[in-house]
Design brief:
The chain is of the alpha/beta class and 251 residues long. It contains four helices and 14 strands. It is 20% helix and 25% strand. The strands form three sheets. The chain has a six-stranded mixed β-sheet, with helices on one face. Strands 6-7-8-9-11-10 form a six-stranded mixed β-sheet. Helix 1 runs parallel beside helix 2. Bound molecules: fe (ii) ion (FE2). The site of fe (ii) ion has 7 residues, from loops.
Length: 251
């Protein structure tokens, strides 16, 4: 299974066009949050309408998995936490979204919503508990925020990651976690597009301007990952031993 991972498109329509154009080359496409942009001059309801149209078109080309990011949470829950309920409408187009699971060839994908407080964090914990009980060969989470204190959450000045994700990953030991959120991480000294804790690999392709997003191609049979961005390209054999001091070089 060949997967495309990108995130943080932030309503960059040329980048959404690019995803649509290449989606057919992959068995699965993952958009790991922040499809919308809260700072955009375009109104939220217009953004969701346009993004929904893109999701429909991309899912016509490939299996599409979409998680919410903080920028997508434009609504409030009963407990007054930020949520992205608008995304659920994409299910009608066959898109897998927050709270959904997808299984193929023994690989289980769990799509985790952004959490904003105790209510949404509780829902997330319940979701992981649900899918922990499922039989699987490998477990992959789509989860917008990167884990705290890792290369993929390094901004260049400090870590800006999710401590709760580290707790969950320690408990459930997923194989891969596909995210984004900290746009600069892969482009700063001390940061990276991939890091590892225990047996879990964490990915963050980063955000770049221009018509093509930074992205990671995951080959789940060969068990490797390739990061491609304007800064270059890097390859990682996920079976090889991980040296935290020497992450894969960018060419
Ligand atoms: Fe973002």
């Amino acid at each position: 299974m060949k997967c495309l991972l990108t995130a943080d498109l932030h309503y960059a329509l040329p980048q959404l066009d690019w995803v649509r154009a290449v989606a057919g080359r992959f068995d699965l496409v993952v958009l790991a949050g922040d499809l919308l942009d809260l700072a955009s001059l375009v109104e939220d309801d217009i953004q969701t309408l346009v993004v929904m149209k893109y999701l429909q078109r991309i899912s016509a080309e490939s299996r599409l998995l979409v998680s919410s990011g903080n920028h997508d949470c434009i609504e409030r829950s009963a407990g007054n936490e930020a949520v992205a309920t608008w995304l659920a409408a994409a299910r009608e187009q066959g898109v897998l979204v927050d709270g959904d699971a997808f299984q193929q060839d023994g690989v289980l994908f769990t799509i985790c919503p952004w959490w904003d407080g105790p209510e949404t964090a509780g829902a997330l914990a319940g979701l992981l508990e649900r899918d922990a009980a499922r039989e699987k060969r490998r477990w992959i989470w789509v989860y917008h925020a990167p884990p705290d204190q890792t290369r993929v959450s390094w901004t260049g000045k400090g870590y800006f990651g999710d401590g709760l994700l580290l707790d969950h990953a320690r408990r459930y030991a997923p194989d891969l976690v596909l995210g984004g959120h900290v746009h600069q991480a892969p482009f700063r000294a001390g940061g990276g597009w991939v890091d590892r804790r225990d047996r879990t690999w964490f990915f963050n392709a980063g955000r770049q301007i221009g018509p093509e997003p930074a992205f990671v191609v995951l080959d789940l049979e060969a068990w490797n990952a390739t990061w491609i961005s304007q800064a270059g390209r890097a390859f990682l054999d996920l079976s090889a031993p991980w040296d935290p001091e020497h992450p894969p070089p960018t060419e």
